[in-house]
């Protein structure tokens, strides 16, 4: 029979990779809680309109990358390509916006984008998503960078670059749009088909185009950064001076753009050379008008997402063992009777306990004990039962000793041995 395989771009995460994912997510959680964030779990499937309206209909994500389908009820639904849109929806729908002055939220889970699969680019990938609602001051922009710095330090990542830019507000962008429409209009014939359309619909998206021709043209265009309005410039300078105070090296990249329309002012990306062309493993920015544009009050926002799959490619972990593992090797039917009482005893006391069901020989049991990383093997056979003892083998030192076959005191007796 033909085997059913996973879908292209979808994969199983197991073994060491799952341990690296956990490390990233556990450390992120720890720092997020330290900084006062609350976890929220939001749906993976949303109305298609949520993403079209927020991410923007001339973006790559909305134009090409969404898993959109009509459900059996006839509604157009989409597997979330990113989390911010859903977080804002939840912030409004739960009424959080009316209850608290500042909301600091995070969510961890899978995102879906129909992209060409390659190293670091999958159709299902995980993000740690972080959002702050209600703070306009640039100190929060810097606080986020500081938290990111602590998370990456704790994960043990040494080499990375934080790049930042300001993409301004609707006011400075309006003026700038007119400026660049003029600039690109002259070079229209050399732009790709998508960008010719973008020129009409959403000219700023041309800066996000990956095609070499368009990149070259936009590479020498006027820059939004040089045309920011005064309040946007003051905000960005404030952000930079706080990062200086914190002593975090951060590079201003005047050409940095993000592939989503809702961003305003500060945007940032963290990259590493170790990733090749998919080099960004974390990205984010401000979205001061998003909440209002979704029907809420004028609450500013800022957030970022860690691409767990990509960050995981940059870290190495040796599997750290926690606690001890006890293995029971039994010989004969009478000894077999000790499996259940020992399983109860050890697991009730939070000790990892293994045995090999249907074991045929001591040799096969010892091999299995090794494979599960047991540090103590208890051996019982008819002889031992007759004498009222059990053999205790210390796997690390290949040494053996005996203890009384007394389950009531076994845990204490084993602890006594390991202290010696
Ligand atoms: P790229 O430029 O690589 O396409 P992006 O700008 O589309 O990234 P964002 O929307 O900013 O990505 O998402 C934040 C992070 O999520 C990225 O920095 C990346 O680490 C991760 N990410 C995005 N798309 C994928 C994907 N298809 N597979 C794995 N991780 C991804
Ligand atoms: Mg992308």
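Q: What amino acid sequence fits the structure above?
A:
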């Amino acid at each position: 029979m033909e085997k059913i395989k996973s879908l292209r771009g979808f994969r199983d995460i197991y073994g060491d990779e799952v341990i690296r994912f956990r490390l990233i997510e556990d450390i992120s959680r720890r720092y997020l809680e330290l900084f006062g964030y609350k976890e929220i779990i939001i749906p993976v499937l949303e109305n298609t309109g949520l993403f079209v309206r927020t991410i923007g209909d001339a973006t790559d994500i909305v134009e090409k990358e969404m898993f959109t389908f009509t459900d059996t009820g006839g509604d157009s639904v989409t597997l979330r390509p990113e989390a911010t849109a859903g977080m804002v929806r939840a912030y409004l729908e739960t009424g959080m916006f009316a209850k608290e002055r500042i909301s600091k939220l995070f969510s961890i889970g899978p995102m879906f984008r129909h992209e060409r699969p390659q190293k670091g680019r999958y159709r299902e990938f995980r993000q740690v998503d972080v959002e702050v609602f209600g703070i306009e001051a640039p100190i929060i922009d810097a606080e986020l960078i500081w938290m990111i710095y602590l998370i990456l330090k704790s994960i043990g990542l040494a080499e990375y670059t934080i790049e930042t830019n300001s993409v301004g507000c609707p006011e400075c962008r309006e003026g700038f749009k007119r400026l660049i429409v003029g600039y690109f209009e002259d070079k229209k014939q050399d732009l790709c088909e998508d960008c010719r359309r973008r020129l009409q619909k959403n000219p700023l998206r041309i800066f996000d185009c990956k095609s070499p021709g368009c990149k070259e043209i936009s590479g020498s265009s006027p820059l939004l950064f040089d045309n920011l309005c005064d309040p946007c410039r003051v905000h960005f300078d404030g952000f930079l001076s706080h990062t200086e105070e914190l002593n975090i090296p951060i590079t201003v990249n005047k050409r940095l753009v993000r592939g989503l329309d809702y961003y305003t002012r500060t945007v940032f990306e963290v990259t590493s050379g170790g990733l090749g062309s998919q080099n960004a493993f974390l990205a984010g920015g401000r979205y001061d008008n998003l909440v209002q544009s979704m029907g809420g009050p004028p609450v500013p926002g800022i957030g970022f997402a860690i691409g767990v799959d990509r960050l995981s490619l940059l870290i190495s972990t040796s599997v750290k063992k926690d606690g001890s593992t006890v293995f029971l090797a039994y010989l004969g039917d009478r000894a077999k009777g000790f499996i259940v009482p020992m399983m109860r005893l050890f697991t009730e006391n939070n000790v990892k306990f293994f045995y090999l069901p249907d074991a045929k020989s001591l040799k096969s049991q010892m091999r299995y004990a090794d494979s599960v990383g047991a540090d103590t093997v208890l051996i019982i056979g008819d002889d031992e039962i007759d004498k009222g003892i059990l053999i205790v083998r210390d796997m690390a030192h290949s040494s053996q000793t005996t203890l009384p076959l007394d389950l009531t005191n076994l845990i204490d007796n084993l602890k006594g041995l390991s202290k010696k």
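Q: And what stands out in the fold?
A: The longest strand covers residues 103-112.
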